[in-house]
Amino acid sequence: MKTIELTKLRTLALVDRPMPTITAPSDVLLKVACIGICGSDVHYYTTGRIGSQVVQYPFTVGHEFSATVVKTGPAVQNLPPGTRVAIDPATPCFTCDQCLKNRENTCRNLKFLGCPGQAPGCLCEYIVMPASSVFPIPDNVTLEQAMLSEPLSIGYYALKQSQPRPDSSIAVLGSGPIGLSSIASAKYLGLTQIYASDKIDSRIAAALKTGAIYAASPDTHDIISDILKIQPAGMDAVFECAGQQETVDQAIELLKPGGKLILIGIPEFDRLSFAIDKARRKELTIINIRRQNGCVKPAIEMFASKAINLDFMLTHHFPIEKTQEAFELVAAYADGVIKAVIEM
């Protein structure tokens, strides 16, 4: 089968690999339909690592995808061949202390697609996943929307972790796919005081389209001053989706006393710093987001009910043979890209 492998920094190769096979009763053999390129995939592409997770070449990245069921193990029910599905790329053990506390996203033995040392990614024609990670989609949900259920589920999980009220004011700093998913989730949960930032014009426009009442670039606007003029008391929560020191600093300034800093973005560096005097005096709560936890089904339901439409995020499409071109586009934030999709 066709497979894309990362062979060294910024180099992807199209190779032929054996078809995967079902080895466990709960396995599902899937034909991959479409794959979204995530910022974490690009980190591995450009730097070869995220923190302690270091690529050993060759390696297949990718974790956002949708698929069609080809075959299942004998223990799998309700996933007949031909079923269109969305995927949770995480495979928890369901037996460790974290799983038993309903924290499968911090499972001690977690295997995550496209994560070095855990599991190869989905940039291939076929893949085997456990049935617990496979979710059938209704007829009115497209395979591209099913792929988008992965980033949407992260945004929705982050909103849930912030415990918002309908009158909560929030800011989303970084309006890429995860930031836009956070804005969409906030709107879905009934929030109206939503502010956003990004350095790319197309993403600023997308943030406004998704539900932000203010969105601007920190390169051309004093976003802290602008937002605090509208909301002088400050933000109840700020969602940092860029993985940058400057956005963390902006968040500290924007938050009201007792506010929550929600860290979603993955930095390319190992340490962040905080203006501790301000954070301490405001008694801010800092919450790290580790992917998603049990939120794929709600994301699918949002698409199925038409409560959310994120199709506008699908800005670029590539065949598998042009995967490297797609990664270079995303790495450069070029041509107004929001989500690049590899179509199988």
Q: Features of this protein?
A:
344 residues; alpha/beta; Rossmann fold; 2 domains
Write a compact overview of the structure shown.
The chain has helices spanning 39-47, 97-100, 143-162, 177-188, 201-210, 223-230, 245-254, 276-281, 296-304, 323-331, and strands at residues 2-8, 11-16, 27-36, 49-50, 53-54, 64-72, 84-87, 90-91, 111-112, 126-130, 134-136, 169-173, 193-197, 214-216, 235-240, 255-263, 285-288, 314-319, 339-343. By secondary structure, it is of the alpha/beta class.
Describe what this molecule looks like in 3D.
The longest helix is centred in the middle third of the chain and has 20 residues. The protein contains 10 helices and 19 strands. The strands form 5 sheets. Strands 3, 6, 7, 10, 11, 18 and 19 form a 7-stranded mixed beta sheet that branches. It has 2 domains: 169 residues, Medium-chain alcohol dehydrogenases, catalytic domain (Quinone Oxidoreductase, Chain A, domain 1); 135 residues, Rossmann fold, CATH 3.40.50. The model has no long low-confidence stretch (mean pLDDT 97). The chain is globular. The chain starts with a strand and ends with a strand. With 344 residues, the chain is α/β, with parallel strands linked by helices. Helix 3 crosses helix 4, helix 3 crosses helix 9 and helix 4 packs parallel to helix 5.
